[in-house]
C-alpha cells in the first residue's frame, strides 16, 4: 500500500511555519504543483556555500528520506537547482538562510 502523502502546498505551509518559529528565514523561490509537486530545499549558510536537499526513496527500507542533491559553492548549488527546475516545472524550491546550517528536515514528516 502506498504511503499516504500530504498535498505539497500543505507540507510547504507547515514547513515554512516551523522554520519561522525557529527564526530561520525561508522563501519560496519557485511555486510548483500544489498537489503533487516535488520539493527542493536549498540552505545557504551565508558564507558563499550552500546545500540542496530533495526527497528520495530509500530502497532498503521503502521509506522516503531527504538526501543531498548538491553541496558546495552557492553558485554551483543554484545551477543544479535551476537544472532540476528546468527539467520539472512542477517543482517547488524553498530557500533558507541560516549560518548554523539548520534546516529542520529530519524533524518533518510527510
UniProtKB/TrEMBL annotation:
This is DUF1491 family protein. It holds the Pfam family DUF1491. Gene3D superfamilies: Protein of unknown function (DUF1491) (3.40.1530.20).
